[in-house]
């Protein structure tokens, strides 16, 4: 997503206190994930264009590149991202190195109904850059899911005074699990975001995604994604639960795909999410032949725009 930081980075008065948050069904998601992953085998695939990620790193000596745009907005503020550039590298067995360079905007609503949140001028420019490491520490087998971490560091490259950045390094600490059942894939997990900045809150998030391979050209997916309130300086001042749907279209050129998704909240704060991007993967296998083993749906972002801003 956002995957990235998904949501606002707009700077407001440090004395503001966020309003009460609606309850988020994180516990319900956790129970559902336990039931799903106790089932027999399904290679789950998630990541861009969705907010739920997966534990599967890029294959060793393989690469992924995305160019994408993303939107996340609430009645408080709209936060479009784009153009944004993502690069993933299978540098070490079971480990993926990850980077995103995003440009984006903050567009506060300036609606008195949401004051003091959502107030200030609009701005566009470089937002906070994302660096990360994905580590698959439990391999998937017929009897257990694959499990891994995807630690991300949000670097304060965006202007804090203009609301394009948080102004300090902040972190996303998720654990993701996956399982495959023939043409169906299931993936899900939970994470915790740490934002050591005035006006923002540390918060939980989690998601569950199901994917179906329709044919050799088309894969379709749907997800349920929830997050807690992110603070008065974010567009997501309250908790929200969303349903997103989209997929992956494989072009004739090997390794090239179109990624697309759109979603809307079903509980909590009103929120919209959208993603559109192009993806390319390439690399060499053990026999030094060009391969395109890992599809875009195996990758992960983003979620979200750095979520505060997958």
Summary tags:
single chain; 310 residues; 13 strands; Porin; twelve-stranded antiparallel β-barrel; mainly beta; disordered C terminus
- How many structural domains in the coordinates? 1
* End-to-end C-alpha gap: 4 Å
Order of helices and strands: HEEEEEEEEEEEEE
Low-confidence stretches: 1-24, 29-44, 299-310
Taking all residues together, what is the mean pLDDT?
A: 84
Please report the first level of CATH classification, the CATH class.
Mainly Beta
What is the assigned CATH homologous superfamily? monomeric porin ompg
Shape estimate? globular
What is the helical fraction, as a range of percent?
under 10%
Number of helices in the DSSP assignment? 1
For the secondary structure, the number of strands is 13
Judging by the overall fold, what is the CATH architecture? Beta Barrel
Q: Tell me the radius of gyration.
A: 18 Å
- Give the strand line-up of the largest sheet: 1-2-3-5-6-7-8-9-10-11-12-13
Residue fraction in strands: over 45%
What name does CATH use for the topology? Porin
Structural class: mainly beta
Brief summary of the model shown:
The protein is mostly beta strands. The chain is built from one helix and 13 strands, in the order H-E-E-E-E-E-E-E-E-E-E-E-E-E.
């Amino acid at each position: 997503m956002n995957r990235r930081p998904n949501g606002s980075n707009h700077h407001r008065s440090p004395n503001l206190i966020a309003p009460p948050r609606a309850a988020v069904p994180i516990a319900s998601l956790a129970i559902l994930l336990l039931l799903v992953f106790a089932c027999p085998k399904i290679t789950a695939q998630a990541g861009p264009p969705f907010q739920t990620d997966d534990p599967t790193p890029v294959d060793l000596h393989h690469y992924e590149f995305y160019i994408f745009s993303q939107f996340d907005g609430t009645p408080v503020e709209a936060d479009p991202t784009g153009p944004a550039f993502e690069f993933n590298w299978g540098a070490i067995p079971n480990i993926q190195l990850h980077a995103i360079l995003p440009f984006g905007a903050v567009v506060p609503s300036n609606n008195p109904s949401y004051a003091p949140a959502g107030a200030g001028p609009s701005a566009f420019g470089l937002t906070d850059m994302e660096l990360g490491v994905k580590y698959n520490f439990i391999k998937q087998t017929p009897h257990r899911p694959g499990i891994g971490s995807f630690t991300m560091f949000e670097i304060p490259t965006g202007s804090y005074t203009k609301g394009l950045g948080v102004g300090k390094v902040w972190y996303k600490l998720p654990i993701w699990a996956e399982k495959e059942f023939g043409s169906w894939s299931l993936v899900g997990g939970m994470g915790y975001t740490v934002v050591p900045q005035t006006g923002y809150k540390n918060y939980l998030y989690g998601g569950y995604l199901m994917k179906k391979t329709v044919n050799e050209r088309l894969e379709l997916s749907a997800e349920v994604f929830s997050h807690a309130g992110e603070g008065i300086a974010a567009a997501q001042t309250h908790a929200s639960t969303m349903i997103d749907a989209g997929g992956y279209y494989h072009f004739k050129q090997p390794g090239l795909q179109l990624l697309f998704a759109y979603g809307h909240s079903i509980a909590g704060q009103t929120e919209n999410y959208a993603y559109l991007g192009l993806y390319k993967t390439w690399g060499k296998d053990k026999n030094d032949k060009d391969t395109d083993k890992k599809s875009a749906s195996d990758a992960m972002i983003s979620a979200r725009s750095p979520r505060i801003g997958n």
